[in-house]
Amino acid sequence: MRIAIIPARGGSKRIPKKNIKHFYGKPMIAYSIEAALKSGCFDQVIVSTDDQEIADIAQQYGADVPFIRPADIADDYATTMDVIKHALHWYQNQGEVIDHACCIYATAPFVQSKALACGLEALKKGTYDYAFSATSFPFPIQRALKLTPEGTVEMFMPEHMNTRSQDLEEAYHDAGQFYWGTADAFLTGLPIFSNRSFAVLLPRNEVQDIDTPEDWKNAEVLFSALQSKDIQ
């Protein structure tokens, strides 16, 4: 059995009710649910939440809410891995056998069903424990700067002061959209970022963290531009 787990607690502080706030015409969480359903990768798409309003909206868009998340993994200190493990243990207690699970963030309106399917295909090969979304940094990380206490700057890697950009190795980062994994990998807590993980590479214009009001505005502008491009 394969399941999608969408974590969506009700206690967002920087953007109140972020998971169900309307984004470009519908609740933010709807995009993750719809992408998961459209992908055809899952036997069940569930939302793990401690909030009944979120549960009701999730069900309206086709997700299942088989349980209400316990309070001890719904505070500011609970990790995504805590939420995934809880869901997997819940299914085990119901006698269900989970082979693969995919955690999809509720605030990922750019997530695409084709990217989810790509991650699953990588896992099916049996070579990887995880597959996750990633994208490239827009600027060479070897040229990164840090601020000193005096307000001046220093290079993290001064040895690359004069290295040509085209000669620097490209670097990538977690795109924060989804994490596929075998049930065993999640339950045993294997690290996601390792040589047993496959990176599903996304274009930078399809990636935007949404943690602050400024992020939200940037995401709306980017989403609108992508929608206009699709219409043309």
UniProtKB/TrEMBL annotation:
List the GO molecular function terms.
N-acylneuraminate cytidylyltransferase activity
**SUPFAM superfamilies, per the entry:** Nucleotide-diphospho-sugar transferases
Pfam families, alphabetized: CTP_transf_3
Q: What is this protein called?
A: NeuA
Task: Give the originating organism.
Answer: Photobacterium profundum (strain SS9)
